[in-house]
């Protein structure tokens, strides 16, 4: 299986406090975690992408999934993860998701 076929068989899993990019065996290749800190506010506190996938936009795609999950569940976020903070700066259309 070549790299493109392998990438196509990987999938995104959306959980209540994390979004993961996993291979067919369930190995986490990339992940964003966002535990609840108060009420309906979460803290996007960690973004990880396996070295083999870095530079391919995976983290950005996961953050987009996080933003969609937060919108759908009526939650807001803080961003103690530096990547997440930068992502929200680059996506002002998602600023309404940021907790004050």
Helical amount: 25-40%
Strand proportion, as a percent range, falls in 25-35%
Kindly state the number of beta strands.
Answer: 7
Mean pLDDT over the full residue set? 93
Termini separation comes to 47 Å
SSE string? HEEEEEEHEH
Question: What is the overall shape?
Answer: globular
State the strand order across the main sheet.
1-2-3-6
Decide which structural class fits the backbone.
Answer: alpha+beta
Main beta sheet strand tally, sense and closure: 4 strands, antiparallel
Which oligomeric state applies? single chain
Give Rg in angstroms. Answer: 14 Å
**Poorly predicted tracts of residues:** 1-5
Account of the protein in words:
By secondary structure, the protein is α+β, with helices and mostly antiparallel strands. Helix content is 32%, strand content 28%. The protein has 3 helices and 7 strands. The protein has a 4-stranded antiparallel β-sheet. A hairpin with a 2-residue loop joins strand 4 (36-38) and strand 5 (41-43). The longest helix is centred in the middle third of the chain and has 16 residues, at 58-73. The chain is globular, with a radius of gyration of 14 Å.
In summary, what is this structure?
This protein has three helices and seven strands, in the order H-E-E-E-E-E-E-H-E-H. It is of the alpha+beta class and 100 residues long. Mean pLDDT is 93; it is low at 1-5.
Secondary structure layout plus pairing:
Layout (H helix, E strand, L loop, with lengths): L2 H7 L1 E4 L3 E5 L5 E6 L2 E3 L2 E3 L2 E4 L8 H16 L2 E3 L3 H9 L10
Parallel strand pairs: 5-7
Antiparallel strand pairs: 1-2, 2-3, 3-6, 4-5
């Amino acid at each position: 299986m070549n790299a493109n076929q392998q990438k196509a068989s990987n999938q995104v899993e959306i959980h209540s406090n994390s979004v993961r990019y996993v291979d067919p065996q369930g190995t986490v290749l990339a992940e964003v975690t966002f535990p609840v800190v108060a009420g309906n506010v979460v803290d996007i506190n960690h973004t990880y992408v396996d070295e083999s996938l870095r530079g391919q936009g995976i983290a950005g795609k996961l953050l987009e999934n996080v933003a969609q999950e937060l919108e759908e569940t009526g939650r807001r976020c803080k961003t103690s993860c530096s990547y997440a903070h930068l992502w929200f700066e680059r996506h002002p259309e998602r600023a309404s998701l940021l907790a004050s």
